[in-house]
Amino acid sequence: MRGDWVLPICTGSERLKKDGRKAHPTQKPEALLHRVLLAGSNPGDLVLDPFFGTGTTGAVAKHLGRDFIGIDADPGYIDLARQRIAAVKPLADRDLDVTPSKRSLPRIPFGWLVERGLLQPGAQLYDARRRFAAPVRADGSLVADRARGSIHQVGAAVQGAPACNGWTFWCFEDRGKLVPIDLLRQKLRAELN
After folding, report:
1. Strand-pair category, 124-126 with 133-135
2. pLDDT at 2
3. Are 154 and 148 in contact (CB under 8 A)?
4. Which residues on neighbouring strands pair with residue 69, listed in sequence order?
């Protein structure tokens, strides 16, 4: 999910009307609740909106397969919310799956690759063009030239760069071909699930 939130105001066919006028003065756009509910809940979770108004939260929750409780003091808004939510069709279960963000995936320390025997101490790692080489140490650190430390620190140092994603920079040799160590990380992640 993107980090920038550029959302339209609630207008057009989404805006609920009663007697030709806005049914609620501060009706929220469904796009806003869609983003919030995807970021903060999972299908089957219970969502509470203590200021339910005309039911935007409930409509989007139902559409996205969430349960909801809505509370509002105005009987007119409650009636509009009930009508609105009754017209919503929930998505099919297969359409509710979301691709997890990279940040939500389990963290895998590089040292686990050594501990699990996927890389042996003394094995050489290379960049994709074989300009740089760094042996793996028993503790999961690397050493290259005068740089010592993590895959990220050593990758940055050998390039003279301020930072480096060591998972995609470093490769190991497998049957004469260089393979990014990120594939080994993905293998360990798959075992955790």
Report:
1. antiparallel
2. 64
3. yes
4. 48
